Amino acid sequence: MKKNYMLLIASSLSYFGALAQPVLNSTDFNYKYSANVYSGNDIPGLSAGKAGANKTWDFSAISPLTLGGTSSIVPKESTPYQSSFPLSNFVVKSTYNDNSPTYYSYNTITTTKLESEGGADSDAISQEVDHLTIFEFPYTYGKTFTDSSQDVGQSSIETITATYDGYGTLITPYETFTNVIRVKSQDTRYSSSSIDYIWYSANPFKTLMFMTLVSDANYVEIYTDFTTLGLKDFAANSPVRIYPNPVNNLLNVQIENKLVIDKITITNALGKIIIEQKEAANQINVENLASGLYFIEVVSGNEKMQQKFIKK
């Protein structure tokens, strides 16, 4: 995975105008998601598609891709380099399957912008003299901004120009997302033919895809298998079990009598609530759900337990 200002973030979005164009504000952030990241290099015929309103970007045929690692939002206090980034309040942790060291990206969110403070791993700590702006709030369709930063001890200056250049539907080999925004970004340190594109989803907001295009090469990352953090998975000795998994029609929920169930919720991979009930149940009818990945969450008092299941 590419070590840059890429963020995996979650939020709700507000909208403006008759065309329902997504608008991102500082108050929209929710830091409770992790994802697997698949990546590929030099993919034949790769193109970012067109900018504009109500576009469809179809990357369902992208191949080959390999699981490169994971990306997740973590508490700053749990990270090993927090003292080097005192202003940060939003940290992205990236792990890699090629045995590269775990990388932490430290960022700061204010009411007007989201900025990068730098990053660190076991090899080096990179601090920015002038923090690089990632988003300016409110971030609306068509907005362009330019910002510069410089790492401590380095002579080169990084200048990024970013434009919110489109919104619509994104189709990846793993999922389809609607209400997606795209950002086009260019670093002036590199050739004018090198351009980055980043796609984000709404409801909740997440990084979905990253692409670098140059004249003779390309690189892509696709984020999938989003998981809500801070919830306890059903363990083998848990008082709650679900079966069968995958399921066709009836999902069985086995609960010990002493456990008081306050609520059972089923959400899809985008976090949208599909089924919600406030009483215990031995079975839940999922026959009408579309095939795909879902999450069932059981709430008992202050405890939340979650597990994935597949609807055939």
Give the number of helices.
0
**Total number of strands:** 25
Helix content: under 10%
The coarse overall form would be globular
Going by helix content, strand content and strand pairing, the class is: mainly beta
What is the helix/strand order? EEEEEEEEEEEEEEEEEEEEEEEEE
Major β-sheet annotation: 13 strands, mixed
Mean pLDDT: 82
Domain count: the total is 2
Termini gap: 32 Å
Task: Write structural notes for this entry.
Residues 1-20 form the signal peptide. It comes from Flavobacterium faecale. This is Secretion system C-terminal sorting domain-containing protein. The chain is mostly beta strands and 312 residues long. It has 2 domains: 26-228; 240-311, Sandwich (Immunoglobulin-like). The protein has no helices and 25 strands. The strands form 5 sheets. Strands 5, 6, 7, 8, 9, 10, 11, 12, 13, 14, 15, 16 and 17 form a 13-stranded mixed beta sheet that branches. A 5-stranded mixed beta sheet has the order 18-25-24-21-22, with no helix packed on it. A hairpin with an 8-residue loop joins strand 12 and strand 13. The relative contact order is 0.16.
List keywords for this structure.
single chain, 312 residues, mainly beta, Immunoglobulin-like, 2 domains, 13-stranded mixed beta sheet, five-stranded mixed beta sheet, disordered N terminus, Secre_tail, signal, Secretion system C-terminal sorting domain-containing protein
